[in-house]
Amino acid sequence: MMAGRLFAIVGPSGAGKDTLIEAARDRLPDLVVTKRVITRPTKAGGEDFEGVTEAEFDRRRDAGAFVIHWQAHGLSYGIPASIRAELEAGKTVIFNGSRAALGRAKAQFEALEVILITAKPEVLASRLTARGRETREDIMQRLSRADMSVPAGLPVHRIDNNGALEDAVHQLVTLLGQEAFAPAQSSLS
Fold first, then answer.
1. How far apart are CA 114 and CA 156, in angstroms?
2. Would you say 98 is a known binding-site residue?
3. The Guanylate kinase-like domain covers which part of the protein (predicted)?
C-alpha cells in the first residue's frame, strides 16, 4: 500500500491545467509534479515536459518505464514509473493526465484522485489562441472534443477556472495540501 497521495489533473486543452500545477508547485514545496514524457519537440514550449522521438518513447514503454501511457492529438504521452517511489515515500504527487487513461491509472493506483479543471468554451478558445501552438482549425477541433466528463466510479474534485486565476489556484492548493480528503463521487453531465 502506498503512503502518498496521487492526483491526476485533467480537463480540456486551454482549461489552465499547467498554469495551476505550476502555481501549486510554487506554494507547496513538497508537492511532486511529474514531468510527462511526450513525443513532441521540447522547443514546442508549454508545460515542463521531456520531449522524445516516437522510437525512444516506444523503447521506454516496452521497457516498462511508464506506469501509464496514452495517445492524444497525434502524440504519445507517458507518466514515468518513478512516481511509485515518490508515493511509497509518502509524497503528494500530481500529473497532467488524460481522461481516456484514467481507468488504467485507477487500476494501478487504487487511491487515485481526479482533479477536473473546467472552463467555458470561449475561455478555452481564447487561451488556445494565445498560446500559439495550433492553427484556428486545430483549435476548433479541440473545442469540439472538449468533453468535461470523467469515467464513473472515480473520486473527482472539480475546479472551475473561468474567473480569477488566484481563485482556482487557492482551490487547488487547498485540495493538495489536505492530509486526507473523501471526495464525493461525481456524476458530471
1. 5
2. no
3. 4-177
